[in-house]
Amino acid sequence: MSTILLVEDDVSFSEMLKRFLERHHHAVILSYTLEDAKLKVKESTFDLVFADLRLPDGDGISLLNHIKAKDASIPVVLMTGYAEVSTAVKAMKEGAFDYISKPFNPEEVLQVVKNALQKPSTEDKPTIQTPLVPSESSKLPTNLVKGISGASKVLYDHVNLVAPTDMSVLISGESGTGKEVVAKAIHLSSSRKQQPFIAVDCGAIPKEIAASEFFGHKKGSFTGAINDKKGHFEAANHGTLFLDEVGNLTYENQIQLLRALQERRIKPIGSNEEIEVDIRLLTATNEDLLNAVEQGDFREDLYHRLNEFSIKVPSLQERRDDLILYAEFFLDNANQQLNKSIIGFSPEVLKIFQTYSWPGNLRELSNVIKRATLLTNGELIQKEVLPQELSAPSKEAMTRSFSTKDNEKELIVKALQEVNNNKTKAAQLLNFSRKTLYNKLKEYNLD
Ligand SMILES: Nc1ncnc2c1ncn2[C@@H]1O[C@H](COP(=O)(O)OP(=O)(O)OP(=O)(O)O)[C@@H](O)[C@H]1O
Question: In the structure, what pLDDT confidence band is assigned to residue 405 with cuts at 50, 70 and 90?
C-alpha cells in the first residue's frame, strides 16, 4: 500500500479524493495548508504528494521546492484549475512529476498515480510507515459536497457570507438541486448550530391544519386535538426553521406566518398565552415566487420578509464540472448503505453521465447510482445497469449538454450566431438563464 499526502484546502473535495484513493488501496493523509504539509513531509515519508497549486498560505510550487530539497525522489503531482495550466507546466520544469487539471476524470487520477508510483527512484529511500491519523475534516459533516465548478463556488461563497447573520434567506432552484442541503449548511455554519433545525414541507401540510402545525394547539381546542401539541415555531425556538415549498402556502396561512414573523410571538390554537419565539427563517421554492407575487398568489410583504437575502442553487446542468465528484460521493454512500464495494464507473458510463441532461438534478443522480450499485456484481458500474432514458438521451439533451469547456464555448458561439447575437434568445436556446449566459460569456472572453 502506498501512502499519499493530499494537500488541498477545499475540505469536501479533498475528502472525496481521499475516499476515492482509499478505495483504490492507497493510504491518504490530508493537509489543508502549505505549512501543515511541510510539517507532515518533515515527520513522515510519502510515496507521492498531490498538491493544489493554490493554498491559503502559499502555493504548490513552494511545497514542490521544499519537498525536492528534502528528497528529490518523492513524486509531486500538482492539481490545477483551467486558468493555471501554464503555471503548472512551469512547475513541471521545476521538478513536478505531472499536473492534473480540475475537474478530474477518476480514470485520469488513477493513471497519474500509477505512473508516479512506478517511477524508478533515483535513490534508495527508507520507508517509514506513516500512521493513519484521523483527519481534522472527519469532524465536519460528511453529507455535503461543495463542488469545484464556478457556480458551486459562488453558491458556497454566498452560504458562507449569509450564514453568520440572522437574515432570512430565500433559497430557489429546480427540484432536487439541494436546497434543503444548502439550508442545513447555513444552519450548521451559524451561531444557532447547537439549536434545532426544523424542516417543514409546506406542500405536504393540508391547509386546514397548517396553523396547528406551525403554532401548535391545546388539548380539546378542536375535534381530534386529543393532546397538547407543540408547533414547528416552538420546536425551532432559538434555532432555524426551514420552510420548503413555501409557495404552496394558502393566502390565509401566509397572513398567519407574516404575523408570527413580525411579532416574533405565537399563540397555540386554543391557548390564551402567547409564546415568544426567536427563530431564523430559511425558505425554499422551486417556482418563481416573484411571478406568484405579480399574479397576486403570494403576498408581497411576506415575500420581502422571506427574501432578505436570496440564494439560487444551480441545476446540475449549470455545474457539470461537479458531476464526477457527486457521482463518486453518491457511490460511496450507496456502497455503505448496500454493503457493497464497487470501485467506480466504466468509461462508457462516465460519458453517458456527462451527456445526459439530469432534469431531476442531484436527486436523480443519487437515485440512478444507488439503483446501479444494487444491480452491479462486478467492480465497475456498467452501462447495462443504467435506466434506459440515460443511455438513449433525447437528441435535444445531447446537443444541449456540455461535456467539456471547449465544447461548451463552441456551443455558445454557435447559439449566438444562430440568433444574430440576441442574448435572450441564445440563453433560451442553450437552456441557460440570461445571467448564466452573461457569466459564461465573461468566463470565455466572448463579450
Ligand atoms: N451538496 C451536496 N452534497 C451531497 N449531497 C447533496 C448535496 N446537495 C444535494 N444533495 C443530495 O441531493 C438530493 C436532493 O437534495 P435536496 O433534497 O436538498 O434537494 P431540494 O432542492 O431541496 O429538492 P426539492 O426541491 O425536491 O425539495 C438529496 O439526496 C441530497 O442529499
Answer: low
Say yes or no: CB of residue 247 within 6 Å of ligand 1: no
| Burial of 99 from C-beta contacts in 10 A (0-12 / 13-18 / 19+) | buried
Max Cα-Cα span within the chain? 84
C-beta of 244 in contact with ligand 1 (< 6 A): yes
User: Above 60 in pLDDT, residue 289?
Assistant: yes
Report the share of the chain in percent with pLDDT over 90: 45
Atom 9 of ligand 1, nearest CA residue: 178
d(CA 434, CA 430): 10
Query: Which set of grid coordinates corresponds to residue 16?
Result: 472525496
For 211, the 3-state DSSP assignment is: helix
Give phi and psi for 52, each to the nearest 5: -70, 145
Distance of alpha carbon 169 from alpha carbon 312, whole angstroms:
10
C-alpha cell at position 403: 461535456
**Does the beta carbon of 368 sit less than 6 angstroms from any atom of ligand 1?**
no
The backbone torsions φ and ψ at residue 167, rounded to the nearest 5 degrees and listed phi first, read -70, 145
Each residue of 131-146: pLDDT tens digit?
222 222 222 344 678 8
Domains of the chain: 2-138 (3.40.50.2300), 150-312 (3.40.50.300), 317-398 (1.10.8.60), 404-443 (1.10.10)
Among protein residues, the one whose CA lies closest to atom 16 of ligand 1: 178
ipTM of predicted complex: 0.98
- Which pairs count as long-range contacts for 36-40, CB under 8 Å and 24+ apart, including other chains? 37/5, 37/7, 37/63, 38/63, 38/66, 40/5
Q: In this structure, which residue's CA is closest to atom 13 in ligand 1?
A: 363
Gap between the Cα atoms of 185 and 196, Å rounded: 13
Q: Atom 15 (ligand 1): residue with closest C-alpha?
A: 178
pTM tops 0.90: no
